Prior knowledge:
The chain is of the alpha+beta class. Helices cover 53% and strands 21% of the residues. It has 2 helices and 3 strands. The protein has a 3-stranded antiparallel sheet with strand order 1-2-3. Helix 1 (5-16) packs antiparallel against helix 2 (50-83). The longest helix is centred in the C-terminal third of the chain and has 34 residues, at 50-83. The two termini are 21 Å apart. 14% of the residues are buried.
Amino acid sequence: MRPPPELKEVHAELSRARITTVKAGGLVTAEIDGNGRLLDLSIDTTRLDAAGLRLIEAGIVEAVNEAEDRSAALAERLYDRMFGDE
């Protein structure tokens, strides 16, 4: 069975979406698509020392988790827009 065109449209929009979060005082930036796939992770090493490394490790987890949460919220809004509150 083929998916309805509306579902294909939602999937395409989620694939095009880009969600970026910045954490750890600007040291960590994570970008994901609307499906929750990590596309880019950057670390500003210009201010890095041992304490900064620990901050970055925590910031990576926090940035990716927040981006994934925002991606899930986007998907929920798109599905609700397409299919209503069924």
